Amino acid sequence: MTSTKKSDDPFTAHRRLLFGTAYQLLGSVADAEDVLQDAWLAWNKADRSDVAHPRAYLVRTVTNLALNRLTSARATRESYVGPWLPEPLLTEPDRAAEETEMADTVSTAMLVVLETLAPIERAVFVLREVFGFSYGEIAGFVDRPEASVRQVAHRARQHVQARRPRFDDDPERRRELTERFMAAASGGDINAVMELLAPDVTAWSDGGGKVTAARRPLHGPDHVARWLLGTLAKPVTAGVALEAVTVNGELAVMAVLGGQPIGVVTYDLLDGRIQNLRFQVNPDKLAGLRP
């Protein structure tokens, strides 16, 4: 008699897809892991003889669990302290990266845009545009007629296209500016930092009320540079090291203290300068930065 290998279990085989779906619907590593745990429990209680297509069954389960969590999370975020930003996720070459299945990794900027969609719009957009499911498959996942799903997809696509930030995608240029940014910030050189920032730069920082962060967006090179260097000059960040890492498929800057990540900066580049910066320093949202 042959034993069933763990890798033969459909849940294990499709875990990357399931995690990627939950993460992109929720923008949270912790919530995505919770959804997968609930989905795993549901899968183990299910009558497998009634499941003709395990992959579709599991995606449907994860999608609906994530939609339920997303709806409740939106109410909670209304009382969130300061700007809310998605949880960053390292995408090379660590454990978290192995648990995502994305042809084109959704950037932090895109996750921010997805936050402006209604839950059902976000689900349809992610399932269609990121994972390539057919309208018929998605209709089955979300219990809606296919015609309705097509309308939702069209509306979501228009919404995303209108809000998707423009940026440069030259990897060498990004690497060069990342190195210059780290050198200028580490050296406390405000003029060098300001030279890298676009005239209309905006910075958001998410501390969640747990650590010091700007409660409102910062605008302009002077304000952004002074706030950044002021934060790095505080006694609590003495000894911090800045490292270049890939987060959500893009080069970013991670702050490390005592061997542990304490924050990450993601950003957009446009016309050779940094257009938008997003500082994630909420300690509850840094799990995806740990290998």
UniProtKB/TrEMBL annotation:
Record-linked Pfam families: Sigma70_r2, Sigma70_r4_2, SnoaL_2
Stored PANTHER family: ECF RNA POLYMERASE SIGMA FACTOR SIGJ (PTHR30173:SF36), SIGMA 19 FACTOR (PTHR30173)
Recorded family membership: Belongs to the sigma-70 factor family. ECF subfamily.
Keyword Transcription regulation in record: yes
RNA polymerase sigma factor 70 region 4 type domain span: 110-159
The protein's assembly and partners: Interacts transiently with the RNA polymerase catalytic core formed by RpoA, RpoB, RpoC and RpoZ (2 alpha, 1 beta, 1 beta' and 1 omega subunit) to form the RNA polymerase holoenzyme that can initiate transcription.
NCBIfam families from the UniProt entry: PRK09636.1, sigma70-ECF, SigX4
Organism: Actinomadura gamaensis
Keyword annotations from UniProtKB, A to Z: Sigma factor, Transcription, Transcription regulation
The RNA polymerase sigma-70 region domain, residue ranges: 11-74
Name the record gives this protein: RNA polymerase sigma-70 factor
Taxonomic path: Bacteria, Bacillati, Actinomycetota, Actinomycetes, Streptosporangiales
Domain SnoaL-like: 179-255
